[in-house]
Amino acid sequence: MKILVIEDEKLLADSLKTLLEGKGFEVEVAYDGETGAEYAELGIYDLLILDVMMPGMDGYQVARQVRAKRCTTSILMLTAKSAVEDRIHGLNSGADYYLTKPFDTRELLACINALLRRQGKQVDELVFGNTSLDLDTCTLVCGSKSVRLSAREFDVMRFLLQAQNRILSKEMILARVWGYDSNAVENHVEVYVGFLRKKLKAIGSNVRIEAVRRLGYRLEVEEP
C-alpha cells in the first residue's frame, strides 16, 4: 500500500512517514500543497494524508484540485481546525475523513485502515479479458492455465489491471512500483513488461500490453 503525506511541518511529516513505514506502508512526503497536488494527480497512491493549514495552496485547495482531475484516491485530512464548519468544508472539498490535531496514533491507524477497506482493497482478484490476477498468490490465471509472477512482475501487472484501458506512462509505473527514490530507469519498465507479455502468451491470455508511442502502456483485449 502506497501513502502520500502532504504536510508542511517537516518534523510531523517525517514522523508520520516513520510511523507508517513501521506498519508496512510505502510512504512518500510532499512538504507543500503545490508539490503534493502534482504527486497526487499521478494516481499512484492508495491514500493521501493531507494537512489543511499550509502556505500557498492549502489542503482544501489541494483536495478540490485532485478531485477535479478525477482522482478517486481516499483523502484523510489532518488539521488543528476542529469547528463543525471546518469539517464540512473539508468533506465538501473532497476529503473522505477529517482528523483533528493533536491525534492519537492508534486513531490515525484505525482511520487509515478503515479508508483502505472502504475503497475495496480486500478484492481477491483483478479481471481483464479472459484473464485474472489472484492477489493472494500473485498468480495470473487464464482458464485452466496459470503462472506465478515475481514480486515486481506482480506490482506492474496489478497497476496495469487497476488502470484497465487507461494509459500509464513509464514514469508513473516507475513511481508506483519502484518508488521516487529508486535508481530504476525506464528500461526496467520495458524489461518487466516483456516478461509479462511472455507469461500472458504462455497461458493463452487474450490480454495484450500495448505500447502507446511516447505515452506509455495500456491493456487491450485481442479480438478472436
Structure description:
The chain has 224 residues and is α/β, with parallel strands linked by helices. It has helices spanning 10-22, 33-40, 59-68, 84-93, 105-118, 151-163, 170-178, 186-202, and strands at 2-6, 26-30, 47-51, 74-79, 97-100, 125-128, 131-134, 139-142, 145-148, 207-212, 216-221. It has a five-stranded parallel sheet, sandwiched between helices. Strand 6 and strand 7 (131-134) form a beta hairpin. Helix 2 (33-40) packs parallel to helix 3 (59-68), helix 6 (151-163) packs across helix 8 and helix 7 (170-178) crosses helix 8 (186-202).
Care to give the gist of this entry?
It contains eight helices and eleven strands. The two termini are 36 Å apart. The mean pLDDT is 88.
> What best-fitting shape do the alpha-carbon axes yield?
elongated
β-strand number: 11
Rg, please? Answer: 19 Å
In percent, how much strand structure appears in the residues? 15-25%
Overall mean pLDDT stands at 88
Secondary-structure blueprint:
Blueprint: E1 2-6, H1 10-22, E2 26-30, H2 33-40, E3 47-51, H3 59-68, E4 74-79, H4 84-93, E5 97-100, H5 105-118, E6 125-128, E7 131-134, E8 139-142, E9 145-148, H6 151-163, H7 170-178, H8 186-202, E10 207-212, E11 216-221
Helix pairs in contact: 2-3, 6-8, 7-8
List keywords for this structure.
single chain; 224 residues; alpha/beta; 5-stranded parallel sheet; 11 strands
